[in-house]
Amino acid sequence: MFWLVLLGLLAAVIFSIAGGILLGSADLNVLTVIDVIKLKLFGIENEELKRSAISIVWELRLPRVLLALAAGGGLAVAGAAMQSVTQNVMADPYILGASSGASAAVGLAFVIGGSFSTSISAFAFGGSMLSLLLVYSVGMIGNTGSGNRLVLAGMAVSVILTAATQFFISIAPDTYTVRNITSWTMGSLTSARWNNIAIPFIGSVVGSCFLMFMSRAYNLLSQGDETATSLGVDVRRVKRTTIIVVSFVTGVVVAAGGVIGFIGFIVPHIIRILVGADHRRVFPLSFIGGSLFLLWMDVLARTIMAPKELAVGIFTAFCGGPFFVWLLYRKNKYGRM
What we know:
Layout: H1 2-22, H2 30-42, H3 51-86, H4 98-111, H5 117-139, H6 147-170, H7 175-186, H8 198-213, H9 215-221, H10 225-230, H11 235-257, H12 263-275, H13 279-303, H14 312-334
């Protein structure tokens, strides 16, 4: 079953990359896309190829597709890791305050005049890490395994940091700053370009691979902290490392695309239903599934009301809300998620 799902998802990734490049407000055909790729990769030029097509395919859509793949995959793996660490099926990086911390920091950056992508990335990463470390410090006082307290601490910190974001919006010096901060909170991949996707792309992939490397520890954690400790797992170190890696992945993703919710919540659950709870399978399939999910949500965001573009976070929330309700129904009816 695992290999069948893996092959199916990989085939879907190839198809989806092509779809993400082809679909948009500007009509393109497959031959035009192939001509652009041949020109950029191999220097083979078609004289009939228009400069506008080159710009659309290579400068706008391809970076956006790559960012969607990396960001969606990273958020899905981070969500699976947080659900394991907290032993709470409702957990994801955002529930524990990562997005609120990043958003508040980005709001501060815009208010004080941050304009370069590297500055925004640094603020978002710092805010995400600080908020998650604060949540960890508060939620884990007294013992190593208070998952419920960790979630409650995350909710409390999120409320405070959301208020901070609203405060920065209220004191913003102009409407341009307000619009920028608001767009971060809604999520969008519009700004994806070759010069600003390297950090989120590499950070998301590397962070996800690191979490995959720790799959065995997460499998043991799922049996309980005491059992994991008796089997040689340093529970506190694993949880601390997870907090740091998840904050890094979430920070760079939020810096690049704003707050894109529910991916880290929806995708891991779907994967577990398909292949079980073994993290050696859940993590890689979650990365691919999250990539596909965000890519197609972004395609919807830029095509459903073309040429006007909507925030991708709207569509992930539209999918995430009903899925959350379905999980509760499944829990009440069958006694399991």
